[in-house]
């Protein structure tokens, strides 16, 4: 079979520890034999970030802006222990945070469903994608411990000198107080990312907040979503046969439990924090979850939702056999290759991505899996294989599909 050719480079962002080992195995076994892989490579391994004073991370983000699609391996976010371990010049910021800030994106997380790995909620037949607004609200709050009797006020001083002042509460005794904010521009960006993503996966979009109680703050989110929808996306949604639907957060939670899945759920920052953890555990494991950052102008960065699996890496360094799950990293590659194929009109690349995903799921359905899945599968007599053994089993399955 001739290798599939690519016309535009895919931005390839390498990372750290066990996921870096998996990265190479995936390329060697599942990609390079079949694709004339055209990537622009950025090494975000911690040593390289330190050597370049983190410029490499900024360069990688700009490359994604330039080409539109990137795929990223998990990376270490340094803490005090890592400073010592890697003799770092500085405690460099989270690479994901830097990429997110430059791309101004929203992260979408979707569970990967495989036969034999069943969601806790038995009604869920299709994945539910969570889109979390990653700016403002309680994450950028100002808090105050009220010491005793007194009056709290909300004061805004306009640049033009106009002052608005409202009483919040008249305290008779000690209590607490909190101020939060958000920006119309950030909410509109978030809305656009959500609408674009729903269109790209052709699934309905839900958005929930609590506008009945928060009649200005949450109502503002609801209004901006509606305005962006009506003016920019309504026709496209109708053409694609999907719907946009707003409901109260408590109603959304009840509906999610009763649904079959298969939609995108946009959440405010705190709601997204809470419900993404609930959904990922209810669907199985972080190693069975895809994650993609979508910018409002339509750039995509695909990654796994889990970290660098440090504990497994130390075993690997000692020469011990590991059984690390590569599914999320494989799906990061297939997501990116499929998107590249769609944008460049390369049908074979799209088909290849579909088949590689199918081969991965078939391998699990046939009972061959890594240790983390053996613990949760409902299949009888699963076979636990090594990190490389799993990828090789997928390759055999893939070759039979191609
Ligand atoms: P982690 O790498 O997600 O791993 C935590 C534990 O979850 C592992 O020890 C393992 O459990 C299990 N696990 C996670 N992924 C797995 C996989 N693919 N296959 C099998 N088991 C898996 O989180 P961490 O150990 O807290 O963080 C390690 C490093 O990752 C940190 O330096 C952190 O900064 C970084 N991190 C990066 C990202 C990112 O780049 N997207 C995200 C989160 C964390 P057992 O050990 O019990 O087998
Ligand atoms: Mg959380």
Molecular structure report:
This protein has 402 residues and is of the alpha/beta class. It is 45% helix and 22% strand. It has 14 helices and 18 strands. The protein has helices at 17-31, 46-51, 55-67, 80-85, 95-103, 184-201, 217-240, 249-258, 269-283, 310-317, 327-344, 347-365, 371-374, 387-401, and strands at residues 4-5, 10-14, 35-36, 39-43, 69-72, 106-111, 128-132, 142-146, 150-157, 163-171, 175-179, 204-209, 244-248, 263-267, 289-294, 300-304, 368-369, 383-384. The strands form five sheets. Strands 4-2-5-16-15-6-7-14-12-13 form a ten-stranded mixed beta sheet, with helices on both faces. Strand 17 (368-369), helix 13 and strand 18 (383-384) form a beta-alpha-beta unit. The longest helix has 24 residues, at 217-240. The mean pLDDT is 95. Bound molecules: NADP nicotinamide-adenine-dinucleotide phosphate (NAP) and magnesium ion. Magnesium ion binds at residues 273, 277.
